């Protein structure tokens, strides 16, 4: 009994991955599926024929899946947040006075 073998979990700080989707993209995919189910039920209650509803949902689901997989592969776990932060940076900083720079030089 003294020779117990314990397996070590080597993925302890890795992000979650499911069938190629990484981190938050799993949630986006799940949310998209919920939205598509709600859309299908709305079309059903309106009285749209089932085959037309299934066709619309099938096409929308395929487009959604392709876009989410592309984002997951392009940006990875944190890349989309970095890209959104990069877009918020100003390209040019304009000022009418050099007073702030002069004050820093005196300190």
What does this structure look like?
Keywords: Membrane, Transmembrane, Transmembrane helix. It comes from Flavobacterium faecale. The chain is mostly helical and 107 residues long. It has one domain (17-106). 62% of the residues lie in helices and 4% in strands. It has four helices and two strands; from the N terminus they run ββαααα. It has helices spanning 24-46, 50-75, 79-87, 99-106; strands spanning 17-18, 21-22. The protein has a two-stranded antiparallel ribbon. The longest helix is centred in the middle third of the chain and has 26 residues, at 50-75.
Q: How large is the share of residues in beta strands? A: under 5%
Largest sheet, in brief, is: 2 strands, antiparallel
What characteristic shape results from the CA principal axes?
A: flat
What is the count of distinct domains? 1
Query: What is the tally of beta strands?
Result: 2
SSE class:
mainly alpha
Write out the strand line-up for the largest beta sheet, numbering strands in chain order.
1-2
Mean pLDDT value: 82
SSE succession? EEHHHH
**Please, how many helices?**
4
Topology:
Elements: E1 17-18, E2 21-22, H1 24-46, H2 50-75, H3 79-87, H4 99-106
Antiparallel strand pairs: 1-2
